[in-house]
Amino acid sequence: MRAAIFILAIVAGALAAPAAAEERYQCKCCGEYFGKNPNAPTFWKKTLGLGRLIRNQKYEEVLARFEHGLPALVRADGLQHFEILRGKREVELWNAIQELTPEFLAAHPRGIVVKASLPLSRLGDFICNARTTGEDHSLAHATLARAGSGIVYAYLWPKSREQEDSTGERLRQAAERMIRETERRGGRAIVEWCPAELKSQMNLWGTLGDDIASMRQLKAALDPQNILSPGRFYGGI
Fold this sequence. Notes:
The protein is α+β, with helices and mostly antiparallel strands. The protein has 2 domains: 9-201, Alpha-Beta Plaits (2-Layer Sandwich); 209-237, no CATH class. Helix content is 35%, strand content 16%. It has 7 helices and 9 strands. It has helices at 42-45, 60-76, 87-98, 100-107, 123-136, 168-184, 212-222, and strands spanning 9-11, 25-26, 33-34, 52-54, 83-85, 112-117, 140-146, 151-157, 188-193. The strands form 3 sheets. Strands 1-7-8-6-9 form a 5-stranded antiparallel beta sheet, with helices on both faces. Strands 2-3 form a two-stranded antiparallel ribbon. Strands 4-5 form a two-stranded parallel ribbon. Helix 5 (123-136) runs antiparallel to helix 6. The longest helix has 17 residues, at 60-76.
């Protein structure tokens, strides 16, 4: 089964002032309006849009109820466009979501990816926090949320090629701020990807849990010489 009966994929990135009223929506966390940016990178355009209901053949009856009732619910929240994707377009969307991080890193090798897991009710807070963090540190920013699971990704990167060499410290500060804010909201976050030279300068794992001692003991027992992917596991094990 694919993730859940349906997935609501939210991509809120590289956004600017709305070009038209029908393309904007209001964020319930901060009250501001957002709209699609025609200058957004191609890999964001693949999935830019706020609601997608994905069909699953095994749950036609359930999905029929979603198809009937969900548009009214999302429009009540200010969403202007709702679409059911089927067949080729459904496959294309899933492929775009799966390839989003690799395409981002190919386009922005100096970028950072923060992966978080939060209660579903706090996803909106995380998205708003990613936006304000990016703006406060003069970084481009975007988010991808799996609304059915509470998994959300924040992407931060230099706004221009000319800024790439001067943004390392701002990227570090922004990522660590997002980890702190996620933990404050009852979630967990890690830096999933970052430039190699930043790894030793930043907190990649957030606040470590009480189980880290047991994990280190297990790693030491299985890999006493620490030659198997050193530093790549949780807590830098």
